[in-house]
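User: hey, got a sec? need Haloacid dehalogenase-like hydrolase domain-containing protein 2 folded
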Amino acid sequence: MIKQILIDLSGTLHIENQAIPGAVEALKRLAQQNLKIKFVTNTTKESKRILHDRLTNLGFTVNKNDILSSLGACRNLIEKNNLKPMLMIAPDALEDFEGLACPRNETPNAVVIGLAPTEFNYARLNEAFRYLQNGAQLIAIHAGKYYKSSDGMSLGPGCFVKGLEYSAQCSATLVGKPNKLFFQSPLDEDVKPAEAIMIGDDVTDDVKGAMDAGLRGYLVKTGKYREGDESKISPAPTAVFSSFVEAADKIIEQLTQKTVYCT
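Assistant: Yep! Here you go:
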């Protein structure tokens, strides 16, 4: 039985300011089913508000409260542990961390890294390294290897996280996908992981992460997908589709067949 769908955003529904062909209509069709739909994203370049505005401008009908962002999960972690972080965050994402940055006259006890190209320079990385050497906690909002942008594949924050781990001889706390709790937290109380499907373009963070958390993992061949990705994990993805459109249509077909069978 399928009760809930989790959907990745960047690379699955859109690539920057371009919707995946047919995705807007496919999401509308899926939303007409008796399903609970949530959106889970590792996007750290922009705040939840900006991200929601982008989706709306592309034609998607998405409730902002149904978006689970790794930025929000990271903020919760910072507040829960009373941390005073150095924030290596993109300018468009800083509003989600308002009031949390370490005061200028104090020393950070945490370093938080998101996808922030303006922060990945020697001076800032060296500053972070020194805080980590002095005992600060390293927090990775996510550690993605790469992502699909309008001009091609681009480096994710993962290599910078790994570099700081290596040099400071520490281990990062990973907040977003593929963290098991990140997949389970959006599920409604009456939904078991086995009754949910995660749809995404990242075979490791989206699909394997979801399957490790007990969900079904649907891989789509858009965004960061590269030929042969489906063979890089074991067990293999629950299903592989050319795009979100095909995945949505398959789910609707399965629900329709189930309804006919039950009646």
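Quick note: The longest helix spans residues 244-262. Let me know if you need anything else on Haloacid dehalogenase-like hydrolase domain-containing protein 2.
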